[in-house]
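Section 5.1 Outputs to date
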Amino acid sequence: MLTVVIPTLDAATTLPATLAALASVPVPPAVVIADGGSTDATRAIAEARGAAVVLAPRGRGGQLAAGARAAARASGRSWLLFLHADTVLGPEWPAAVAHHIRTHPDRAGYFRFALDDPSPAARRIERLVRWRCAAFALPYGDQGLLIARDLYDRVGGFAPLPLMEDVDLVRRLGRGRLVPMAATATTSAVRYRRGGWWRRPLRNLSILSLWFCGASPAFLARLYR
C-alpha cells in the first residue's frame, strides 16, 4: 500500500542509510527518488537499490510534488510517505505505519524527531520539536509525513515552494488531521553542528515567523541559504 517519496540533492553520503532502513522489512515499500540535479552518486545509489528516479527542478516542494505524481503513475498505491534523504527510520517504523493505516485512514501521521548526535544540545532541540508539535501541530519534513493518496490530493498536495513546503501542507491539513506515530525518525545533525546549536534554531524560528507574517517563500529561501 505504501510508496516512499524522497527528495534529493547531492545526498550520496546520507541516502544509503535512509534506503537501508526502508529495505529492512520482508516486503519493502516502493521508493521514488525526486532528484533536483545531483552531481554526485545520488542517482546511481538510488537505482542500484531499486528505487525509481525522477528528475525535477531544484526546490524541495516541487521535487516532492513531482515524486508524488511519479508514484501515482508507477504504482497507484494508496499511501505516501514523504521522507528526507538524511533521515533514518527506527526499526519500529513498519509497525507504526501499519497501525496508523489501520486506525487513522483519514489522517496524516508523523514520526518522533531525533538527531544523530549524543550531545545535550541535541536533546534540547528534540525537546523543542516535541513542544512545537504539541503546541502548534507543526511537524517539519524531517519527521516524515505519512498520508493517504486521496487525502493528499484533497488538500492540494505539496506546493512548488523553495522553502516552507512542509509547513504549508501541514497547515492545510490542520491539527485534527495530524497524528504522531510511535516510531523515531533520526535526522543528521550536521546542519546544527555547522550552523550552531543555538543560531540555527533561532534562525529557523525567525524564518517561520516571517512566513506567518506573509514574507515570500523566495525571500525566505535566500535567508535560509
